[in-house]
Structures are given as C-alpha cells and as structure tokens.
Amino acid sequence: LPASMYTEIQRERPDGGNILTHPDYIDGNPDLIKPKKLLNPVKASKSHQELHRELLMNHKRGLGVESKPELQRVLEHRRRDLLIKQKKEEEEAKKLQSPFEKELLRRHQRLDQLEKEQEKQEDHAPEFIKVKENLRRTSTVTGDEKAA
Questions:
Q1: For residues 88 and 128, which has the higher predicted lDDT (pLDDT)?
Q2: Quick one: pLDDT at residue 43?
Q3: Which of 19, 21, 66, 133 is the most buried (most CB within 10 A)?
Q4: What's the start-to-end Cα distance of the chain, in Å?
C-alpha cells in the first residue's frame, strides 16, 4: 500500500515530485488566501534605497567604493580634527575640575599678581631705597654667618 501511494504521487508530479517547485495553492481552491512574500524592512527603507542607487551610479561611472571626492575627504578630515581637539579640551577641563587643582591655580595666579606688584613698586622706588634694602640684606646675611 505505501508503494502505491508513492507511485500515485509520481504520476501527479512528472518532474520528480519536488514539492517546492509546484505548491498546492496554485492548482487548488480559489477561496484560499495565497501567501505573499514578506518585505525586508532594511531594503524597504528610503535611506537604503538611496544608498543603493548611489552605489549603482558610482559603479556605472567607474568610481570605486573607497574613492571619495576630494572636498568630502577634506571636510571629513577637518571634522575629525575638530572632534579630537574638542575631546582634548574636555579632558583638560576635567583635569582642572578638581577642587585641589582649582585652589592651586588660584594661589599661583595670586603669587604672580603679587610679584608683578612688587616689580612695579621697585621700578618706581628711588635708587637710594634699593641700595638701602640691598645693604640690609647683606648685613643680615653676614650677621647670621657670625652667629653661626
């Protein structure tokens, strides 16, 4: 009995019985809903279609995928350099964000300002005052040396 079923199927499908090449719904009932092929969401997207169209046009013109217009390469290079510079500035800003660093920077600025003020005062002072200060310094140094 199973052999007779096989021979019956062979008679219906003379091409060798490949079920995938001749589905049943083509010959069958018209009331059945025929399946539709599903759309690939990637291929259906506008951006993918535009990219594919651009690749086809570049292929027809003979341009490779890697070759870009010079202007586009320069702009990408500038954009990349700008991003690198921004990242470096952000890192430097993060380094200076610590309270210890802020305090050190503030003290350093204060010392620089005091030194500038002293230089201004020394420049405007008469020469005899400068000589007198130098004499005091030498006298204190020699006095310390005698005590030691």
A1: 88
A2: 84
A3: 133
A4: 128
Q: Report yes or no: 61 and 70 within 8 Å, Cβ to Cβ.
A: no
In which band, very low, low, confident or very high, does the pLDDT at 115 lie, cut at 50, 70 and 90? very high
Residue 64's region, left for phi above 0, alpha for psi from -120 to 50, else beta, is beta
What is the rounded distance in angstroms from the CA atom of residue 107 to the CA atom of residue 94? 19
How many angstroms separate the CA atoms of 49 and 13, rounded?
41
Instruction: Check if the beta carbon of residue 22 is closer than 8 Å to that of residue 13.
Output: yes
Which residues fall within 8 angstroms of residue 25, CB to CB, at 6 or more apart?
32, 34, 35
Confidence bin at 84 (pLDDT 50/70/90)? very high
Exposed (0-12), middle (13-18) or buried (19+): which is 139, by Cβ within 10 Å?
A: exposed
Between CA 67 and CA 71, with CA 70 as vertex, the angle to 5 degrees is 130
Two tokens, residue 4:
């007779």
Contact call for residues 19 and 12 (beta carbons, < 8 A): no
What's the pTM value of the predicted model, to 2 decimals? 0.26
